[in-house]
Each structure stands twice: as C-alpha cells, then as structure tokens.
Amino acid sequence: QVQLVESGGGLVQAGGSMRLSCVVSGRTRFDTMGWFRQAPQKDHEFVTAISRSDGSTLYANSVKGRFTISRDNAENTVYLQMNSLKPEDSATYYCGASLRASVHSDYPLTVGDMDRWGKGTLVIVAS
User: Fold this and answer.
1) Which of 13, 31, 118, 123 could, after both became Cys, cross-link 6 (CB 3.0–4.6 A)?
2) CA gap 29, 42 in Å, rounded
3) Mind listing the pLDDT tens digit for each residue in 46-59?
C-alpha cells in the first residue's frame, strides 16, 4: 500500500525556518515528488518539485531563494527546507507523488499531475 507521510509542521515566528519531511512507502514507479500548499479558503498552490532520479528541481516564484527541496533516496524521504518564513507562507503543506509529471520543463506542476498525496502538515507563521 502506497503511503506518503508529511511531518515537521508547526508554529514558527516570521523570519524563522522550518524543515518538512515526506516519507514515501510502498512499491511505485513514480519519479517526481512535489510540495503543494493550501491556505484556508484558497486553492492548492504549487510550491516545488524534484526528480528522484536526477535531482532536478522546480520552484514557484513565490518561494525561490527561500525554500529548498531535496531528497534522500536511500531513506525514501523528500525534504522542504523553508527559510525566511513569512505570514503568507502559512498553509497546510502537502507532499505529492507523480508517475508522469516532469520538473524538466518550465511549467509548474498542477494538482492533476499528482497521483498520490499525503494528508498534509500545518505550518503557521506568526508575526
């Protein structure tokens, strides 16, 4: 059974840092892992994605220079390092996996690109 489990969320002060983790289990063929976020009453927003095979990354403009995605394939874990956090970063962050989506284009991933989702971890950035 395929599972994605996020962790690391919580409350942080503006300007602080936080690292999220996503552990994937189960036998799948997907290569691309990504992070989306959703604030209350807002649509899911693409944050970043990474190729598990070659490490290529893609970032939303809103987080470039502040967030870093990485992976540890040996541990089947994808990380999201978030620095210089702003109140507008507050959201539930979801880890997703895609069988076919690619980070090698300049197009951001969409919710429809993802095939598996975690249940999310809440990040609250306080002023």
Assistant:
1) 118
2) 31
3) 999 999 889 999 99
